[in-house]
Amino acid sequence: MTSTEGALRADQAETSAPPLLTIKRLRIGFPSLEGIVLAANDVHLTVGQGEVLGLVGESGSGKSVTCRAIVGMVPHPGAVLGGRIDYDGRNVLEFNRTEMRELRAREIAMIFQDPASALNPVFTIGHQISEVLRLNAGLGRAAARARSIELLERVGIPAPDRRMSAFPHEMSGGMRQRVMIAMALAGEPRLLLADEPTTALDVTIQDQVLQLLEDLRRERNMSMILVSHDMGVIGTAADRVAVMYAGRIVEVAPTDVLFSSPDHPYTRALIDAMPQLTPEDRTELRTIPGQPPDLLKLPEGCPFAPRCPLARHDCAEVSMELTAVSPTQLSACPFARRES
Amino acid sequence: MSTQAPDGARNGDPILVVEALEKWFPVPRSPIDVIRRNPRERVHAVDGVSLQLLPNEVLGIVGESGSGKSTLARCLVALYRPNQGSIHFDGVDVTEATGQMRRDLHGRMQMIYQDPFTSLNPQMSIGAAIEEAGKVHGREGNDFVGDLLEVVGLPRSFTGRRPRALSGGQRQRAAIARALAVQPEVLIADEAVSALDVSIQAQILNLFAQLSDELGLAMIFIAHDLAVVSHVADRVAIMYLGRIVEEGPVDAVFRTPRHPYTRALLDAHPDPYTLGAADETTPISGDIPSPLDIPSGCRFRTRCPYATDVCETDDPALAPDDGPHRVACHVLPFGPPAEGWETAE
């Protein structure tokens, strides 16, 4: 395949479903004493209706901040510097406060890594879920209570009517995350942003929560962006995966393709660095040499070049534009395919 | 005391022998509890653990939060005094050791923690921290500092750096160098790679494997991540609510688990390469019970799909003469141990 044929951009990439969310050339910057740190740099993403997009990368790769930009929650003093985020045909970056509130109330919900800090410790969980329903759906007290119990039951909380009067500290981590999911579902969102939803949970509980998210997605045809640093979680729960490195998307592919034939050297290295449960032989894990990048001192061209086994002199001239490896797989490395 | 080598693959007497270890913590009582004379409650963090560690062996300990694995580690290095049971390190009773004897033990056993940011003194340069540890335990000069930095894969020039000038992976390397400075015989790593990114985690795991191969260190490697343990351990013990429920060579336990809890842990482990196969089993339900109120009989029965009446009344023990792959279960739904794994490395 020649590079001109392959010049297909991420926003035109095939998803099996019509896109609900399209992010184009998103740039998010944080001011620092030594200049602006680009936490997200020319990020392109699409999320189809009913699709789970996995967003994977190491700490500082920009996955969380990209996710937060969608609901206008880039933490201070960061700001969106450019690009657009089209949700259902409208650019959310141009939304005013009221429109953004509406969007967060009815269309896009978010769950976080640590449910203990996302819940208010001094109110019962029943109070907190009912409040969401009364404010967003305009339900009365009794109706909100009944609906809250339904939601708690749906997310698998035993004896939901009694649990309504429990405080967050009286519940386990897994139960609190279920409560967060119930609250997120209260507005019947079409898109759920899940930022490391199972990172704080034990494996058996993680398994239960991932299963719950998958059931809810099927049941409601809900789209989801699943942010995680764990390739295992991404591999089991996502339909398509975008890999981020130093604020850039380096590869996008359907999950099975990504794991069976990764293109970008960084994706390959990430997969190789994963310890296996029952490896054929316990030889050394292949590692990525060097340290995660300093976002203030990124090299010209490809930011992964200093750690890349395939690096060559012209890596500094790479545009980092995603090009098509196949109709469904996009990669920012123009050299990887030729080498393999 | 039985000092028979548990897996036969390695020679020598065990360097560390733990027998029927129990550690509990009293729960603070409110004035109302005192007035009502409510019984004093206890959290049973470690509740009857026996294990042995051979020289040059890496024993992995796996368990979910609240299973007691960190409490066990702290008992081993005499940070906690156990309430019951004994710990013998090379014939010396750790629980009874005081004064100079205790200091000697600390020189022979070192612990590495999850977060090197809190375990390294921020005011002290890496070199000074390593040197101090060595000097306290009788090493002369400071020429060993640079060598140790090299052993853990840091440039010698890092001697003067403060912990905050290092990345997470480098800091963990420095913490390991400091532990090695006292020339320990046993390293106890408590979730030592859990806070690191995947690419860095792999580097540190390789370092641990290299230390065990090249320096012949015995190691207890505690983690909640099964794949991480699988990579470094020779033998693995699975903990649940303060007990070891299964123990054996790592290949045997991970390929042919015998305890329903081990099976559930393995099934829940997200592995992108075993898609589909994992969906045939139903995930175990519910949370780990509170260690304040441990179920009667088998402590896993409340979540076990195979539980029977016996499980409710009788507490299963790890059978001592059950070969190298031992399990504490009445039902054994997956049959006898598979043959052939014992010889696996």
Polypeptide structure, described:
The complex is a heterodimer of chains A (340) and B (345). Chain A has two domains: 242 residues, Rossmann fold; 73 residues, no CATH class. With 340 residues, chain A is of the alpha/beta class. In chain A, α4 packs across α5, α5 crosses α7 and α7 runs parallel beside α8. Chain A contains twelve helices and twelve strands. In chain A, 48% of the residues are buried. In chain A, strands 6-7-8-3-9-10-12-11 form an eight-stranded mixed β-sheet, sandwiched between helices. Chain A has a four-stranded antiparallel β-sheet with strand order 2-1-4-5. With 345 residues, chain B is α/β, with parallel strands linked by helices. In chain B, the strands form two sheets. Chain B has a seven-stranded mixed β-sheet with strand order 6-7-8-3-9-10-11, sandwiched between helices. Chain B has a four-stranded antiparallel β-sheet with strand order 2-1-4-5, covered by helices on one side. In chain B, β7, α8 and β8 form a beta-alpha-beta unit. In chain B, α5 packs parallel to α7, α6 packs across α7 and α7 packs parallel to α8. The N terminus of chain B is likely disordered. Chains A and B meet through α8 and α9 of A and α8, α9, α10 and α11 of B.
